[in-house]
Specification:
Elements: H1 2-18, H2 20-79, H3 85-93, H4 107-111, H5 118-126
């Protein structure tokens, strides 16, 4: 058995001395580097493609949200006809875009909001809005 081990060692040592092992290892390393570079390039291209698709989806979502907001503001303004745009924006920003929520507000609370005065309260009452 020891003769077989010695024979293997001799063969391995001969291969090392001749450079056959290092050449094979170098070839494997070079091929591995090529594969890694190719994979990195493919991943980069895929990432760019996905990034473009995400950007398009974000833009589409922004446009849809903007259209919905405009439609909501138009509906809100239609229900509160006769009020200025700044007053409508104040109401909308405060979260009272639904007329039902006006029942949860007192006149004093509304008067505390910026841009809301007695004339606005009067117009709201004329439009049929009731307060607490």
């Amino acid at each position: 058995m020891s003769k077989k081990l010695q024979r293997k060692k001799q063969l391995r040592n001969n291969l090392r001395r001749s450079g056959a092992l290092s050449n094979a290892v170098n070839k494997v390393v070079e091929e591995t580097k090529k594969v890694v570079k190719h994979a990195e390039k493919a991943a980069s291209e895929a990432g760019k493609a996905v990034s473009k698709q995400v950007e398009k989806a974000v833009e589409a979502t922004k446009e849809q949200a903007h259209k919905r907001l405009q439609a909501q503001l138009k509906n809100f303004a239609a229900n509160l006809g006769g009020l200025s745009v700044t007053v409508l924006k104040t109401f909308y920003d405060e979260g009272s875009s639904l007329l039902l929520t006006s029942k949860n507000w007192t006149e004093k609370e509304l008067l505390a909001l910026k841009g809301i005065g007695p004339a606005t309260i009067k117009k709201l009452k004329e439009n049929g809005i009731k307060f607490k």
